[in-house]
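Annex B. Sample input.
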Amino acid sequence: MPYEIDKPEEQWRAELSPQEYHVLRQAGTEPAFTGEYTDTKTTGSYSCRACGAELFRSDTKFESHCGWPSFYDPKDSDAVELIEDRSHGMVRTEVRCARCGSHLGHVFAGEGYPTPTDQRYCINSVSLRLIPDATAD
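Annex B, continued. Sample output.
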């Protein structure tokens, strides 16, 4: 699928840190409970670290205790792309940024999560950048 932002892999490699490149462009995973946003409660929006597209809002983030930031819904349904993933001997649904195609994590559904959507978007912190909301003084 053609993406709005389409760069050669050499350019992505030059713009991203080695860990960011591994996760975002090679569908890697950061180790559980190591990401900077796993326990963050800051109010704001989460954007794609590769292209800056707004993906999730903090009001849909919840404590899933899975080791990665979890959200029950993207900001807009067209902000992410869902792809069947049959790697590692299982069937899952991969979540990618719809703007640049970068790997974000996986979504799990129908597992009785205590959320309005019964879904858990399990997203790598390294795939995201938190933009805190401005606070009123």
